[in-house]
């Protein structure tokens, strides 16, 4: 990495990732890079050995970092990528590191509706774009106009919604590409109505989800015609444990770290759940949580 030390951002070797992810478990990044701005990121990736793997990290809310850590470089976007600006009466440009709460709150302030659902997703714009994040009947593909990315090669490119091949919780964003900004379009709506909808969403999450726990959010995708939580519950997995890893009793599509669970414990518990659901209902659950890195 000696040829990359001229980068203006912060480059840290052997950087612990557990403090940066919601499960508070897992190993270290071989390198963690926090770029100063998009130009810095582009120059860094252009100079990086093409064989070195690259992974983006947002709030770490939907991720299991395996205990052996993550080889290559993990890119984390900081405050320089968290700005949200209004382009016109219905359109926002949002930095790739801006949170769903910030984006939805700015949209409310500017009377732009249709963005409220982002209030309920604990992540950043980059993750929303990559995973087609969604909740309460809306998805990122419903509001995205275009995004700017830095490709693994260091090339900066603007991709339109149609370029991303969106399906449920999936996009065709190129491997190693980092989303540095996204343009979202909503509809005109009174700010008080937007706030009321955000309040409704917040109350629904508070009532149904284990928000103050070490968790990774929704663990499994909803199979066609089913709710993942209902399949997990029917298979008798509510409260199921493996060490300090537990299926939430409040919402059984959430896994919890009750204290000292390793990432191996959490992932193995998820596989236990998948096996029990398959045996009970014949349905094969697909992971929604990203599982990254190497086992210890």
How would you portray this structure in words?
With 296 residues, the protein is of the alpha+beta class. The chain has three domains: 2-76, Uridine Diphospho-n-acetylenolpyruvylglucosamine Reductase, domain 2; 82-194, Uridine Diphospho-n-acetylenolpyruvylglucosamine Reductase, domain 3 (2-Layer Sandwich); 213-288, UDP-N-acetylenolpyruvoylglucosamine reductase, C-terminal domain (Uridine Diphospho-n-acetylenolpyruvylglucosamine Reductase, domain 1, Alpha-Beta Complex), CATH 3.90.78. It is 24% helix and 28% strand. It is built from six helices and 19 strands. It has helices at 38-47, 100-109, 125-131, 191-208, 228-234, 263-281; strands spanning 10-16, 28-34, 54-57, 63-65, 70-76, 84-88, 91-95, 112-113, 134-135, 138-139, 144-150, 156-160, 178-185, 187-188, 214-218, 241-242, 245-247, 254-257, 290-292. The strands form six sheets. Strands 6-7-13-11-12 form a five-stranded antiparallel β-sheet. Strands 1-2-5-3 form a four-stranded mixed β-sheet, with no helix packed on it. Strands 15-18-17-16 form a four-stranded antiparallel β-sheet, with helices on one face. The longest helix is centred in the C-terminal third of the chain and has 19 residues, at 263-281. It is globular, with a radius of gyration of 19 Å.
Shape: globular
The CATH topology name of the largest domain reads Uridine Diphospho-n-acetylenolpyruvylglucosamine Reductase, domain 3
Poorly predicted tracts of residues: none
Characterize the biggest β-sheet.
Answer: 5 strands, antiparallel
**Beta-strand segment tally:** 19
* CATH architecture identity of the largest domain: 2-Layer Sandwich
- Estimate the strand proportion: 25-35%
Q: Between the first and last Cα atoms, what is the distance in angstroms? A: 24 Å
Please, what is the average pLDDT? Answer: 95
* Biggest β-sheet: strands ordered side by side in the sheet: 6-7-13-11-12
User: What level of helicity do the residues show?
Assistant: 10-25%
Structural class: alpha+beta
Computed CA radius of gyration, to the nearest angstrom: 19 Å
Pattern of helices and strands: EEHEEEEEHEHEEEEEEHEHEEEHE
Number of helices: 6
Domain module count:
3
Question: Which CATH class of the largest domain applies here?
Answer: Alpha Beta
């Amino acid at each position: 990495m000696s040829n990359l030390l001229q980068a203006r951002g912060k480059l840290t070797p052997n950087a612990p990732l557990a403090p940066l992810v919601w499960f508070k478990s897992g190993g270290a990044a071989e390198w963690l890079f926090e770029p100063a701005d998009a130009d810095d990121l582009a120059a860094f990736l252009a100079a990086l050995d093409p064989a070195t793997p690259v992974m983006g990290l947002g709030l770490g809310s939907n991720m299991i970092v395996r205990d052996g850590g993550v080889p290559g470089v993990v890119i984390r976007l900081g405050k320089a990528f968290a700005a949200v600006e209004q382009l016109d009466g219905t359109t926002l440009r949002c930095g790739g590191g801006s949170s769903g709460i910030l984006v939805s709150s700015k949209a409310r302030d500017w009377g732009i509706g249709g963005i409220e659902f982002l209030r309920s997703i604990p992540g950043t714009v980059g993750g929303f774009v990559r995973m087609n994040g969604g909740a309460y009947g809306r998805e990122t593909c419903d509001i995205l106009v275009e995004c700017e990315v830095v490709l693994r090669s260091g090339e900066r490119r603007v991709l339109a919604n149609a370029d991303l091949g969106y399906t449920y919780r999936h996009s065709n964003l190129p491997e190693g590409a980092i989303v540095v900004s996204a343009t979202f379009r909503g509809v005109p709506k009174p700010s008080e109505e937007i706030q009321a909808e955000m309040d409704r969403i917040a109350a629904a999450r508070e009532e149904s989800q284990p928000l103050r726990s070490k968790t990774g959010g929704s663990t499994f995708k909803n199979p066609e015609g089913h709710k993942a939580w209902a399949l997990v519950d029917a298979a008798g997995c509510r409260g199921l444990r493996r060490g300090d890893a537990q299926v939430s009793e409040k919402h059984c599509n959430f896994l919890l770290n009750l204290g000292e669970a390793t990432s191996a414990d959490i992932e193995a518990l998820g596989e236990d759940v998948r096996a029990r659901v398959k045996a009970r209902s014949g349905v094969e659950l697909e992971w929604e949580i990203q599982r990254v890195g190497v086992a210890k």
